Amino acid sequence: MSWNLQYRTSKFRHVYGRPASKEKCYDCVPITHNVHDNQFCAVNPHFIAVVTECACGGAFVVIPIHQTGKLDPHYPRIWGHRGNVLDIKWNPFNDFIIASCSEDATVKIWEIPKPLLTKTITSPKKELLGHVRRVGLIEWHPTANNILFSSGYDYKIMVWNLDTTKAVISNPVKILNAHRDVVLSMSFNTDGSLLATACRDRKIRLIDPRAGTVLQEASYNSHKANKVLFLGNMKKLISTGTSRWNNRQIALWDQDDLSVPLLEEDLDGSSGILFPFYDSDTHMLYVVGKGDGNIRYYEISPEKPYLYYLMEYRSHLPQKGMGMMPKRGLEVSACEIFRFYKLIPTKSLIEPISMIVPRRSESYQEDIYPLTTAAQPALTAQEWLNGVNKAPLLVSLRPGSGVVNSLPEFPEPQPLVTTADLSQHQGWGGKMPLEDVQEPTFADVLQTTGRNP
């Protein structure tokens, strides 16, 4: 472990991990015992989805995020695959749509009903048929609506356009044949114009997802990559894997030159795979080891020495996987900048872990909450397929700022009082900022001035 001893100012130097109390955990959850190297957990501000152990076929449960405590043994499940479920991912623009892939070589899209689940769901909204072997990875496009990528053990990555009324889709809009072995990891850059992959041949590839061409390939033999991740818009990638001496290792790469890594960091000699998580708002990297109980976290800098070790969260309970809450689901009043959902199969427990910036003030801390990705697509599926690139839409996390909702149906907009309306009434003077006049209704304003609405 390298240490940078020079003094460096940082708002995140003293970030610490705070596990949830027992009553705020999810207990008696039959977490899967599958050994596939995936997270088996997906989280959004409404639900937590977890792949479960079942007698036949593949299933997962969807639990409301506030329904903590013991789970009913007869709690309804999403049960429609004939083989084990290997990966699940929530639609980033719709909190009630989730995708799953399985050993039965299919990808299924599920719609979660608005009321709480009352019975097991067995019929998906859509079924994607194209792979001839089991499907191990799925990823939603970060900016285009209804674009899904799937990767199977047939060495193919398929691009699906879900903007169709068909219940069964058998023709992907694009098939990427850039690999000669199983893809272990996929990651998009900020606008989704580039796709990075880590393959079982231990190579990292940078791919144009629409053309299907390999733009760069890392053939550096000293680092055997298992997982790869784009670092936001820094034009850098981080990969986790093993060194020539089989030590667990992380490596930092320049997006424009994958010949030699910018940095290699050996961590330890354990055997569990390392999962990287990156927060582009705070430039913090979290490294989680499968079978470990700890979480290492770093701060990434665009200049040398690039990687600054901050601290390590320690626990004696080993994790099988981790779910990650999107930024819009965090508790900003507690200065929470990241939240994990730790799967502990030995205890049938899911434990939330909050990463906290220690500050006394309970007011909104604007310096640690910059504008973040909104739950609204920047592009339609067809626009992206036609070659258009757009950065993700951004939104403030300040309470009351009108965070973009990700519900499938948006409520009707309420009439707002404008500055011109207010200037007609005494006491306001027409000088109130527009963002501050959206809370009172027009009837409230009239009542304040003594007039009948």
TrEMBL record:
<dbReference type="Pfam" id="PF08953">
    <property type="entry name" value="DUF1899"/>
</dbReference>
<dbReference type="InterPro" id="IPR001680">
    <property type="entry name" value="WD40_rpt"/>
</dbReference>
<dbReference type="Pfam" id="PF16300">
    <property type="entry name" value="WD40_4"/>
</dbReference>
<comment type="similarity">
    <text>Belongs to the WD repeat coronin family.</text>
</comment>
<keyword id="KW-0175">Coiled coil</keyword>
<dbReference type="InterPro" id="IPR019775">
    <property type="entry name" value="WD40_repeat_CS"/>
</dbReference>
<feature type="repeat" description="WD">
    <location>
        <begin position="78"/>
        <end position="120"/>
    </location>
</feature>
<keyword id="KW-0009">Actin-binding</keyword>
<dbReference type="InterPro" id="IPR015048">
    <property type="entry name" value="DUF1899"/>
</dbReference>
<dbReference type="Pfam" id="PF00400">
    <property type="entry name" value="WD40"/>
</dbReference>
<keyword id="KW-0677">Repeat</keyword>
<dbReference type="InterPro" id="IPR036322">
    <property type="entry name" value="WD40_repeat_dom_sf"/>
</dbReference>
<feature type="repeat" description="WD">
    <location>
        <begin position="176"/>
        <end position="217"/>
    </location>
</feature>
<feature type="domain" description="DUF1899">
    <location>
        <begin position="5"/>
        <end position="69"/>
    </location>
</feature>
<dbReference type="InterPro" id="IPR015943">
    <property type="entry name" value="WD40/YVTN_repeat-like_dom_sf"/>
</dbReference>
<keyword id="KW-0853">WD repeat</keyword>
<protein>
    <recommendedName>
        <fullName>Coronin</fullName>
    </recommendedName>
</protein>
<dbReference type="GO" id="GO:0051015">
    <property type="term" value="F:actin filament binding"/>
</dbReference>
<feature type="repeat" description="WD">
    <location>
        <begin position="128"/>
        <end position="170"/>
    </location>
</feature>
<dbReference type="InterPro" id="IPR015505">
    <property type="entry name" value="Coronin"/>
</dbReference>
